[in-house]
Design goal:
Elements (H helix, E strand, L loop, with lengths): L6 H10 L5 H5 L25 E3 L6 E3 L16 H4 L14 H10 L13 E4 L22 H12 L2 H5 L1 E2 L7 H5 L4 H9 L5 E5 L2 E4 L2 H20 L5 E4 L21 H11 L5 E5 L6 H6 L6 E8 L24 E6 L6 H19 L3 E5 L17 H12 L6 E4 L4 H4 L15 H14 L7 H15 L3 E7 L3 E2 L9 H5 L5 E7 L2 H11 L11 H8 L2 H4 L4
Parallel strand pairs: 3-4, 3-7, 7-12, 8-9, 8-11, 9-10, 11-12
Antiparallel strand pairs: 1-2, 5-6, 13-14, 13-15
Helix pairs in contact: 9-10, 12-13, 12-15, 15-16
Amino acid sequence: MVGNMKPDVKSKKARRQKKMTLEDMYNNQYDFDDEDDDSDWEPVQKPAAVVKWFCVNCTMVNLGDDSHCDICGEHKESGILKHGYFASPFLKEAGLSQNELEVKERYKDPCSQISESGKFTAVGFDERMLLHSEVEMKSHPHPERPDRLRAITASLATAGIFPGRCFPISAREITEEELHMVHSLEHIQSVELTSQLLASYFTPDTYANEHSARAARLAAGLCADLASEILSGHAKNGFALVRPPGHHAGIRQAMGFCLHNNAAVAALAAQGVGAKRVLIVDWDVHHGNGTQEIFDGSKTVLYISLHRHEGGKFYPGTGAAHEVGSMGAEGYCVNVPWSRGGVGDNDYLFAFQHVVLPIASAFSPDFIIISAGFDAARGDPLGCCDVTPSGFAQMTHALNALSGGKLLVILEGGFVVLLGESPGCEAENVVPSKSGLLTVMEVLKIQMKFWPTLEPILLKLNLQWGTYALPNRIVCLRSQRTGPMHGTYSRLDHDTVLAMPSSLHLLNVPYCQEKQKKKRQRAGVPVWWQWGRKRWLYHLLSGDLHVRLKGV
């Protein structure tokens, strides 16, 4: 029998002896034939090729003939790049429906009404920034790609906002001298070198092509000029519709899709035209490690970031609550590090009410910059958070009330609020998640050393939420001068907290542990055991037998 076996059948048996790997299975390289000789069998037809397409909205890969994205539901031929977010996500590209036209009309405001630029929002945009793109075609579209700006500009144009209710500023490229105030000369030269190369990478995910250096100079120049326009009174506020982004770019390195730090350039430009104190609020889902590094020792720029951190496991791993600044500028860096994904409006607004706005008010900025990304928004496949447009609008509206409305948003959400429109219903009594509450309380405990206005806020939160957040612990007070108050800890009512002097510090310590322990132990035995024949057993169970042995 063996001698009559055909050679190709022998080779199949030899291949079967090789250990099967996942890659073999994926590539259909492993032979799954039966032991019987089936060399005369021929398939009726070749296996159908798997259809693979990428969503124009979220960029995620989809397999099969379905016309809608499995992740975000966008139609694979939707008109988002033509009509922006006014295009239906469920239909193939076409003209706007009647309902969408009505929405568009609500936003429209003729350009002729712009008579005094100082009363309107300025927008910074230049189409040359769209030339910054990844040359090497990979298996998945890059998250930071020209389509981001195309979709946003289409949305604004369709709504009649820009061009329309906002006015543009002329684009210019930032100078080397201006960049050198933020970045090292080596960093500036390394970015410029990419203009001589067809394709290059600073990190595996931070690309550049021959147009990237100019795009980065244009982005930084627009941000600097918008800051100057706002502070000079030529614009009410501003929106920098720019790319590449910047908050990961540090003094000496480009990373995280970022080449030059646009927010840092804008902050220094604002100070150059008279701003004494600049606040940067960063609500991107990733920590702005570059911005924090640049202003680490500055007391004139306050940096506040809300981001996913998860104990340093979430990119870029920086931004823990204990990172507060250095070199005499402790407290001028405030990090709100979320411990998980899925963080939504309630946690962000809760942090704004109890951390961001109290510190910002005490700092009293002359100018505010919002540095953020869409990756904290609901439905983003990378950020995996749950902030809605309403949430972004409420945060922007709250910041707009500070610094006389002198506000610059660099690419991020809440744009409609810049036009002076109400964000809708504002939440007053926001209920946070347990993890969000713990994060906010941790930040307050650290930052109140530098911002005394946070002390009563933390005390109040402990009264309202202490049992929910820390069920076995409670607020205890200790005086700086007299030490523990006779070692007695008790629950405090609301009026006591409000009347309490600032010399009292909050501590998270067990509340009357010994007393509570005995109460639990007594609850576990019948009352009559205390005085009857089983009193000895009662004292044994209650843990004070060593005190009462002589009396038994």
